[in-house]
Automatic annotation (TrEMBL):
Keywords: Membrane, Transmembrane, Transmembrane helix. The keyword Transmembrane helix applies. Gene3D superfamilies: 6.10.140.1340. The chain crosses the membrane at residues 7-30, 36-58. This is DUF2892 domain-containing protein.
């Protein structure tokens, strides 16, 4: 798995977790979903993603073109 796919998979898992939290815990977890969406949006324009930095530090290889 390359870096781009790891970041996209991580974002998808976080969104699914936030949906479960909204359903079972509190609607306030929608703020977490909005944070994830805003982070994805800013990463698409700037190319900077904190999750990509963490995955790179953990040894996930590059290969995609989104996060260099």
């Amino acid at each position: 798995m390359n870096l781009d796919r790891a970041v996209i998979a991580f974002a998808g898992v976080m969104i699914l977790i936030s949906v479960l939290l909204v359903h079972f815990v509190s609607p306030w977890w929608l703020l977490f979903t909005a944070f994830i969406g805003l982070n994805l949006l800013q990463a698409s324009f700037s190319g900077f993603c904190p999750a990509a930095l963490v995955f790179r530090a953990l040894g996930v290889k590059g290969g995609g073109c989104a996060f260099k």
